[in-house]
Structure formats: C-alpha cells, structure tokens
Design brief:
The complex is a heterodimer. By secondary structure, chain A is mainly α. The chains are: A mainly alpha, B alpha/beta.
Chain lengths: 266, 329
C-alpha cells in the first residue's frame, strides 16, 4: 500500500510537470484541435457513405457504430497520451543513445518510468471529440443509456487499456535487440488501431485470436456493447485475467530484455 | 576499513556486427551479418574501501565507463562478480539504488524546460527523502556550489557550468554512500572545473562517501584522488598511489633551471633531454639515478639563478604509458 502511495505521489508530480510544459506549448493544443475536427468530419462521412449501402454492419447500426468509433477515439488517445507519445515512442532512441541509463539508475520500477514518465495532455481535445461522437450516436439513434452500465464498462474498458498498453510495451521492448528500431512504436500503434472494428465481424479462428491471443475484443468492442446494454457474464472475469496476464508478460519480457541492454559509450 | 566495492574477475563482452564500407556493403549487411565479440572489460579485480576517492583512468575505449556501468547495475557482466555495499548491482535492488548515484558529464537528468529545483523535488520523492533532510541537504549543497539563485531558473537558460552544478545536486539529494562520477568536468572551463573538484572533495569529507571518478583531465585526478586505477584495453595495468605510479613508470626527474643570461638548447643537451627552453627557463629530463651528478654539472657550468628538481607531471607519465594515445582529448 505504501508502495502504491509512493508511486501515485510521484506520478502526480509528473502530471503536474507535464501540464506545466504543455501550457508552454499552446500551439500543439490548437493543432490538435484542428486535426481532430478534420478527423471527426472524415470519420462521420466515412460512416455515412458505408451506411448508404448497408443497414447494419455485423449487427451494428450506424448510431451504434458512432458510439463504437467515439469510444475508440477516447481509447486510442488515452493509450497514446499516457504511454506512447512521449514515452514508449522514444524508447528505441533512449536505448540506442544510452539515455536509458538515467532511468535504470533510479530506485523506481523501470517499466513504470519508461512507460509513464511524461503524459501528453494535448490529446484531451481528441478525447472530447470522441465523447461528442458517442453522445451524437446515443441521441440520433435514440439509444438507451443506463447509468448502471458505467461500472462494468469501467472495469472492462480499464482491462482493455491495460492489455493494449502491455501489447504495445512488448512490441517496443523488441527494440532492445533491434537498435535504432524507430518503426516499432508505430507498429504497436497500428495493432491497437485494429481494435476499432466490432468484434462480431470476426468469425472462426479469428474470434479466438482476437479474444485470447491479441484480445482486441476487450479494448473497444466489449466496452461499447456494455454501454449499449449488452453484458455477457464472462467478460469481466476474463477481462481481469487478460489484464493481469498481459501486464505480467510485458513485465517479465522487459526485465528479460534489460539483460541485453548494452548502453552506449560515453 | 569496510570494503564497499569488490570486483572479482569481472568481464564484459559486447557482440557487435562488422560494418562494411559503402552502400553495397550496407545492403549486404541487411541480409548477412558478420558478428564479432569485443572484450570491453577483461577479468578486472579490485577492492575499494569506505570513503576512498579513486581515480579510474585510461584512454578512450579502455573499459572505464563499462566498468562503472556494471558497478551501478546498468549492465549485466558477462562473467565474474562484483558487489557494491553488499549488493549485487545487476539485481538493481531498491535499497541498493537508493544508496548510490551516477553522474555522467554528457547526459543530464534535469527537466530542460523547468527550473532545476523541480527536478530536485521530484528526486526527493523518488528517493523518499524526508522534508527536513531535504531542506538541510539542499541548503548545504546549494551553498557549497553557489547556486541558490540559479536553481530557480529554467534549466535551458543556464550556462553549462551552472547546469553541471545542478546535475550534481540532483544526483546527491539523497546523500548517496557511493558516487560514480563519469567525466563530471567535461566541457567546463578551468574555473568551473576547479569548483566542481573542490566540491567533490568537500562532499567526500563531509559525508564519508566513496567516490570513483573517471576523467580525461589529469588535474581532476591529481587534485581529488589519492589512489588511481589505470585500465587499458579492458585490463588493469596499475593500481596504487600517484607517487607510486610516477616512481614506477617514470625513470626520470625533471630539472627546471632559471638562468641569469640566455642559454642555447644545444648547450643544455649534454645535461639531458631538453623539453622546453625559452633561454631563461628550461625544462630538462634527466635519468633518476643521474640527478645529483647532472644537477651539480648544471650549477657548475651555467650561470644558474635558481634550480627546481621535480617529479614528472602525472599527465606526462600517463601519456607515455599509453604510447601515442593521449589522455587529454
């Protein structure tokens, strides 16, 4: 408990530092808003075009898909903002130029440090855009929102975030052996963006793959279904197991990779 | 005295791929790579006692930094053992990391866009320093390094020297018992180098900290360390006091006469090897055993106003040890 309190205290400091820095660079906030408005328009138009020809996609109507894509925006921005943009994305470089030394020398969990050192707040407008899209979906489609679904939603969505981060972490950890592996974080992100499809579009063996091996289902699809009033009994226990297993795997893999760290000469 | 650092046959090998020249070579390397193993550190053994100040020197690529990084738990040794404060560094135990610090002159941990004091506060949390201890040590360090005002400035607006001083504070806020300093004075001007040296000495005196220092500047080593360890091509070639090193490796002394009138270098060659001569003051290398004879010859045959007989300078001895490789970059 004392350990958790200590880490929370440190993380709170890091959040404050990053927020201070963010305000120094107001332009990135503005740019982020412009990009998001564009992305928002393109996504909505894409959905409109798709649903001109079909009524439902794997059982999802236009408005449900809007909720799904809105949640996907929030999901992606959390993963990117918390762990990727300023952290995991820069890890291959830190490994190549030996800057990882400064992290490993500190009496803190090194995975915590490489993953969460610098949160990025300029993505908050994008998350708001996601919320707006979800609200539109609910309103326009006359979908029923039940406040009680928020609790199971939070658990499954949280598990999905942990799984997504862990997968990303494992992919980026490979850069320990592939020095100068700057494309790795992009590859990890690409994986995560596959999460935006509804799970019901997958059939046969793919269902197993995206449920167990790369559990994309828990990232956006299942949480959206919970918000839309559908909850299968095993989602929560399985989500929790997946989150714990994947986080542990990423930790074991990271610690194993550290043995191969060769630093850089001074 | 308690042994704080112990190394037993510590080795580190790196596996690197051979780079071929030119574009064709690079493309070939994409498909087929040849690897070779470099032995950066070869079976190095030594002990360091509590409170010792040790200079760890050697030419570029000798294995200094690799050894320091193994001692601080950053690199896994390929073979052999090392213990620091009773811990195996590679395990990177929390209790171990809380008692050591590594300062690298070429890397900085300060948050670039924030005042340095913010990094100190963050490190206070990371190292779990109590509020009272933090205030006390920060006050002391800031006074010793004269940065009380500067530390409230944004790091990016500091001079290199100011930044290095703040780096030192950030690394010492938890009063480490063992301090690894990897070229702490690199790039600093002479005045600042001296200040950093004085600070290291004072820190060692005050907190009984054990310090290992690597530096390309022999002045750092001379002024700070009583003991030096010299490493070359991954092997320890000397371990002892500076005086012992000079006696062992320099079989000569230096005569420095000051003449009352101008004297040609040519005339002085009969005394010994003339290293410097401006006509009035000369520096002459003379074999250790011949010193009394040559000094008396000099006094008899020349109009000498003053004569100094010195041991050679540390940097000259080290430079000669490594042949053409110069210690100072």
């Amino acid at each position: 408990m004392k350990k958790i309190k200590r880490y929370l205290k440190i993380y709170w400091k890091l959040i404050k530092f990053s927020a201070t820095l963010e305000t120094t660079y107001r332009m990135s906030f503005l740019l982020e808003i412009i990009v998001e408005v564009g992305y928002f328009v393109v996504t909505v138009m894409g959905m409109k075009v798709l649903f001109w020809n079909i009524k439902t996609m794997a059982g999802w109507n236009l408005y449900e898909i809007m909720v799904l894509y809105g949640l996907n925006m929030i999901f992606a921005e959390i993963v990117l903002g918390v762990a990727f943009i300023f952290n995991l994305r820069g890890l291959p470089e830190k490994i190549a130029n030996g800057e990882l030394d400064l992290i490993l020398i500190k009496p803190l969990n090194s995975q915590f440090m490489v993953s969460l050192w610098r949160p990025y707040f300029a993505l908050i407008p994008s998350m708001l855009a996601g919320v707006i899209m979800m609200v539109f979906g609910f309103k326009l489609g006359n979908l029923v929102f039940n406040w009680l679904s928020l609790f199971p939603f939070m658990i499954i969505f949280g598990c999905g975030l942990v799984v997504a981060y862990s997968v990303g972490m494992m992919v980026v950890t490979l850069s320990m052996w592939l020095v100068q592996a700057t494309p790795l974080p992009m590859l990890a992100q690409k994986f995560l963006f596959m999460a935006k499809e509804p799970f019901s579009i997958y059939g046969g063996a793919w269902r197993f793959v995206f449920l167990v091996i790369l559990p994309l289902a828990f990232m956006v699809s299942f949480p959206t279904q919970v918000l839309l009033g559908e909850l299968v009994w095993w989602w929560i226990p399985m989500g929790l197991v997946m989150a714990v297993v994947f986080l542990k795997m990423s930790n074991v893999f990271w610690n194993f990779a550290l043995k191969s760290y060769s630093s850089a000469s001074s | 005295m308690k042994k704080v650092i112990e190394l037993k046959k510590l080795s580190k090998n790196f596996r690197i791929h051979k780079r071929e020249q030119g574009l064709i070579g690079s493309v070939k390397a994409l498909f087929k790579r040849e690897y070779k193993t470099i032995e950066a550190v070869k079976k190095v053994s030594f002990d360091i006692e509590e409170g010792e100040l040790v200079g760890f020197i050697g030419p570029n690529g000798a294995g200094k930094t690799t050894t320091l990084k193994m001692l601080s738990g950053l690199l896994y040794p390929s073979s052999g053992n090392c213990q620091v404060l009773g811990f195996r560094p590679v395990e990177r135990k929390y209790e171990f990391l809380k008692q050591i610090s590594l300062v690298m002159g070429q890397k900085n941990q300060l948050w670039w866009d924030l005042p340095a004091i913010e990094t100190f506060v963050l490190n206070k949390e990371i190292y779990e320093v109590s509020d009272e201890d933090y205030k006390e040590i920060l006050n002391e360090l800031a006074e010793m390094l004269d940065v009380k005002e500067v530390m409230h400035q944004q790091v990016r607006k500091m001079s290199l020297g100011q930044r290095m001083k703040c780096e030192l504070i950030a690394s010492l806020i938890h009063k480490p018992k063992v301090l690894f300093l990897d070229e702490p004075t690199i790039g600093l001007d002479v005045v600042m180098q001296k200040k950093v040296r004085e600070f290291i000495l004072e820190y060692n005196r005050k907190y009984k900290a054990t310090v290992i220092l690597t530096s390309h500047y022999m002045d750092d080593v001379k002024e700070i360390c009583k003991r030096i360890i010299i490493i070359d091509k991954g092997v320890i070639v000397f371990d002892g006091s500076i005086e012992k090193l000079i006696k062992k490796y320099a079989n000569y002394k230096v005569l420095i006469p000051i003449f009352n009138g101008k004297v040609d270098s040519e005339r002085l060659t009969k005394i010994g090897e003339v290293i410097e001569n401006n006509g009035i003051r000369a520096v002459i290398k003379v074999g250790r055993k011949e010193v009394p004879k040559k000094a008396s010859e000099l006094l008899h045959e020349f109009d000498v106003d003053d004569l100094d007989i010195n041991e050679p300078r540390l940097e000259d001895v080290v430079r000669e040890m490594f042949g053409k490789v110069t210690i100072r970059e």
